[in-house]
Write a structure and sequence with these properties.
It is built from 13 helices and 20 strands. The chain is α/β, with parallel strands linked by helices. It folds into two domains: 296 residues, FAD/NAD(P)-binding domain, CATH 3.50.50; 177 residues, Flavocytochrome C3, Chain A, domain 1 (Alpha-Beta Complex), CATH 3.90.700.10. Strands 1, 2, 5, 6, 7, 8, 19 and 20 form an eight-stranded mixed sheet that branches. Strands 9, 11, 14, 15, 16 and 17 form a six-stranded mixed sheet that branches. Helix 1 links the parallel strand 1 and strand 2. Helix 1 packs parallel to helix 13 and helix 3 crosses helix 4. The two termini are 24 Å apart.
Length: 534
């Protein structure tokens, strides 16, 4: 992606310039832009999408933060050390300690900054967070002052709304449909001096007099890159930012920052744990955004796909390509949008040898009624509106044989599987997989099938950075002795934060928005403080 310039090449021509160039307009990039401008730097933000905010516009707005003023005013006792310990444990101690310590020490100030500098209100209700000894799940409060604040809590788009307001007040340009194609580092040991971008087919060069900040998200929409790190992931797992058929993707989380960084000598961290997989039943969409205008927040979470969780798994069987069961369905009882990817249920799916994987949940009329699978949705599936069902991911029929044909599964095998399972129901014991009671027969037409769609989401790995958010040169990975990240060499004038910069470890999947803003701010301040390279 990035080629080196030789000394014989003509002097670089610039189309635009600023002190600091920020790549990505999600909450990380916008926080960096605000801090850099507040530090008296000129700033340009480039965004490859056609809207500001990236995937933050569909985020739930969850920020795991400890020892905050919100906790104090609601009477919750907390301290930084216990928060640090909980973060490290929850990350299975794979997180970078220096970065977690920085996050913890500066996180409470980020909460105040978003409230006082940006005008974001924080809800007094703080949600329970897995692995933490006190509740630390902070959400924006409902407010008419920002988009997404109309419900019981604000959302990720609420944070984008207040950040965008600040960016606009600073007169910082946000260039939409500008995709970074390479980082410019003419001297392999020198500074990054700018970026090249593709603006709807036009190549432009943007000069960064002080620094470039990478905040362009992860790589989970890049199937080939995901497969490079985990071969089990393929085209039959779905990008979490994709749009309905006939529409372009809402967001391309394609790893641009990682690939560009690698081209100029950056290092990566914790890449083998590619992502966790929220599951959608009958839908390939993580969220629906229709109409696609800024004042209408996307609909995500339980608004895409049909409900199947908890005790609902007692009413279904799961079958794979050959029409045979392959798992105790109760293993999926905890498999919702917050499932960690390494759980038994998801791992069993990823380890299936068939490609493409074709896994369906099967039930009958009584089961569908219990699950609230409405017949009308099966008869007229529409990916463009909630629950965003895809025609090739739902099926209904009057016989098991007919249902199998619609799902692309051998009818003889599926009929035998259903009959065998019904025999176990009559016996009161699942002799194949030990599914616990109660078991329910699948015998009353019509019969229903919904496809399991695994969505690639929120990978933890990325560019190696230090506590100043500077990108580390991978040359120091050749050392035979271990040193702190703050002792490693950096790529001069290059910063990274957010999902393109890994640090929280393979098990920490949710509640990262507070961390992203915190390190975006760190990057913005430090980038603005660089001495101009020219």
């Amino acid at each position: 992606m990035c080629r080196m310039q030789s000394e014989n090449e003509e002097e670089q021509k610039w189309d635009r310039e600023a002190d600091v160039v920020v790549v990505g307009s999600g909450g990380t990039g916008m926080a960096a832009a605000v801090e850099a401008a507040d530090s008296r730097a000129t700033v340009i933000v480039v965004e490859k999408g056609d809207h500001v905010g990236g995937l933050w516009i569909a985020a739930g707005g969850h920020a795991i933060m400890g020892a905050t003023h919100v906790l104090a005013r609601t009477g919750v006792e907390d301290n930084l050390e216990s928060w640090y310990e909980d973060e490290m444990k929850e990350c299975d101690y794979r997180a970078v300690p220096e970065l977690v310590r920085t996050y913890v020490e500066q996180g409470p100030n980020t909460m105040l900054w978003m409230e006082k500098r940006l005008g974001l209100k924080w809800a007094d209700h703080v949600a329970k967070t897995t692995g933490h000894r006190v509740n630390r799940g902070h959400y924006p409060a409902p407010s008419p002052d920002y988009t997404g604040g109309e419900g019981t809590i604000g959302r990720g788009i609420s944070m984008i709304a207040v950040l965008l307001r600040a960016v606009n007040q600073q007169d910082t340009p946000v260039l939409l449909k500008h995709r970074m194609t390479r980082l410019l580092r003419p001297d392999p040991s020198g500074p990054v001096i700018g970026i090249d971008v593709d603006s709807e087919g036009t190549n432009l060069s943007i000069k960064a007099k002080r620094a470039v900040i990478l905040a362009s998200g992860g790589f989970t929409d890049n199937t080939q890159m995901c497969m490079a790190w985990d071969p089990r992931i393929g085209p039959d797992t779905y990008p979490n930012g994709g749009g309905p058929p006939g529409l372009p993707p809402y967001v391309e989380n394609t790893g641009d920052a990682l690939l560009a960084g690698l081209d100029i000598g950056a290092g990566l961290t914790d890449m083998s744990f590619v992502s966790f997989f929220p599951i959608r039943w009958g839908s390939k969409s993580y969220f629906v955004w229709e109409p696609r205008v800024w004042t209408v927040p996307p609909q995500g979470g339980t608004r895409t796909g049909l409900p199947l969780r908890g005790k609902g798994f007692q009413h279904v069987i799961l079958v794979k390509n050959d029409g045979m069961r392959y798992i105790n369905e109760a293993e999926g009882s905890g498999a919702g949008s917050g499932e960690r990817w390494e759980q038994t249920f998801t791992t069993a799916y990823l380890n299936l040898k068939e490609r493409p994987r074709n896994v369906w949940a099967i039930t009958d009329a009584d089961g569908a009624e219990e699950l609230k699978w409405w017949l009308s949705l099966f008869q007229d599936p529409d990916p463009k509106k909630s629950p965003a069902l895809y025609p090739d991911c739902v099926a209904v029929a009057q016989s098991i044989q007919e249902l199998a044909g619609k799902m692309g599964i051998p009818g003889v095998n599926l009929t035998a599987t259903v009959n065998r399972y019904n025999g176990f129901v009559d016996l009161g014991s699942d002799r194949d997989f030990g599914k616990p009671l109660p078991l329910y027969r699948i015998s009353k037409p019509p019969f229903f099938g919904v496809k399991a769609c695994m969505l690639r989401h929120t990978q933890p790995g990325g560019l190696r950075i230090n506590t100043k958010a500077q990108v580390l040169d991978r040359a120091d990975q050749m050392l035979t002795r271990g040193i702190s990240i703050d002792q490693e060499r950096v790529i001069p004038h290059l910063y990274a934060a957010g999902e393109c910069a890994g640090f929280l470890g393979w098990r920490r999947t949710h509640g990262k928005l507070g961390h992203y803003v915190t390190f975006g701010r760190i990057a913005g301040r430090n980038a603005a403080g660089e001495k101009p390279w020219a």
